Amino acid sequence: MTVSANTAISSTSGARIVIVDDDPGVRELLTEFLVENGFGAEAVANGAALRDRLERRECDLIVLDIMMPGEDGLSILRSLMHDADGPGIIMLSAISSEIDRIVALEMGADDYVLKPSTPREIMARIRSVLRRRAGTAARGGAISVGHAAPAPTDCFAFAGWTFDSRRRKLTAPGGAIVAVTETEYRMLAIFLRDPQVVHSRENLADLTGRDNPHCNDRTIDVHVSRLRRKLSVNGGDEIIRTVRNRGYLFLPRVEARVA
């Protein structure tokens, strides 16, 4: 199944959006609104229909409802996360508990929107995610995070790992490619640019989630925890340390190379 979003989006207008929701009213309302505002939007009712759609054509972003009969949105999200270059994903849910938002973010969602929400708000969230992804693709894989971003030709080595920013590729010591989300990629770029420096949660939130009004200390903790787990996949030395009341410290020495 191809779900690649590897073509740079020069503008959010015209981006290919797929809405997945079992409510036909939501599908119709949101699709119509997005089309009227220049998006290539279409809607499907469930995970099976989504997979059929992705087999036929790529898309840039999926708006995915969580509470659906049969296969729920989190199960669909989990299946999509196998593709490191897949489309952006925004979760829709009537569930407002913090734990559900955290679970969705930990699984790789780019954003989480509570129902009821207006089509205009959802469109704003879509544009925000697409801008971040377009910034990555336009720079050949480099993330735009201000002064903390590595140069497009930079390649970093640390603790047996390598990170190729041009190809958006993180390679484990054993040679396996480890998939990272957009936010994890931005965060790793910050740590590698300034290793062995304590980065406050506020600074990380500003540099990785400045387009997302819901990026806060708690969501930064979630993303750091997820990145830390991926970097400890081989049971090696500690890489990211929590510094109480201050933030996070990237421990290894980093060697910058030209890819």
Automatic annotation (TrEMBL):
Domain OmpR/PhoB-type: residue ranges: 153-252
Positions in coiled-coil regions: none
Response regulatory domain span: 16-130
UniProt keyword Transcription regulation, yes or no: yes
Keywords: DNA-binding, Phosphoprotein, Transcription, Transcription regulation, Two-component regulatory system
Modified residues (4-aspartylphosphate): 65
Domain of life: Bacteria
Record carries keyword Plastid: no
InterPro entries in the record: CheY-like_superfamily, OmpR/PhoB-type_DNA-bd, Sig_transdc_resp-reg_C-effctor, Sig_transdc_resp-reg_receiver, WalR-like, WH-like_DNA-bd_sf
Pfam families named in the record: Response_reg (PF00072), Trans_reg_C (PF00486)
Name the record gives this protein: Response regulator transcription factor
